[in-house]
Amino acid sequence: MSTVITFPRRHNPVDAHNPVGGVSNPQTLRAKVAELRRLAASSRTATDNLHQAISRLEQLDIRAHAQKIKTAKLESL
Predict the structure, then answer these.
(1) Where are the domains of the chain?
(2) 21: alpha, beta or left, given left = phi > 0 and alpha = psi -120 to 50?
(3) Could you report the per-residue pLDDT of 15-58, keeping only the tens digit for each?
(4) More exposed terminus of the chain, fewer Cβ within 10 Å: N or C?
(5) Residues whose CB is less than 8 angstroms from the CB of residue 24 and which lie 6 or more positions away in sequence, other chains included
(6) Count of other CB atoms within 10 angstroms of residue 9
C-alpha cells in the first residue's frame, strides 16, 4: 500500500484567477508581449553589434600581424 503525500497549494488570488502573470486585461497582456518582443529585438541587435565588433577587432589584429611580418621581411633584406 503506497502513501501519497500532497502539499497544500499556496493561495495567490492573482494567479488563481489570471494564469498569465496576473494579467487579466487582454490589452495589458498585448502591451507586455509587445514590450518583451522589443526587448528581444534589442537584445538581438546588441548581440549582432557585439559579434560585428569582435569580427572587426579580429580583422585589425590579422592586419597588424601581417604588417609586422612585412616589416620584418623588409628589415631582413
Answers:
(1) 22-76
(2) left
(3) 555 555 555 677 888 888 899 899 999 998 999 999 999 999 99
(4) N
(5) 17, 18
(6) 8
